[in-house]
Fold:
Amino acid sequence: MLQLVALLLIIWVALIIIGALIKALFWLIIIGVVLFLLTAAFGWFRRDSARR
Structure:
């Protein structure tokens, strides 16, 4: 499960970088940041629940 979260985080970072390189795709940066934060939060909570 954590491998999937890590893969998604890498994909979202790639979207952020692509959006930053192509200035017309500012919306891609916003989507990438939001998805990155949601995925990181999901992975964090899953990791904490797996410890218990």
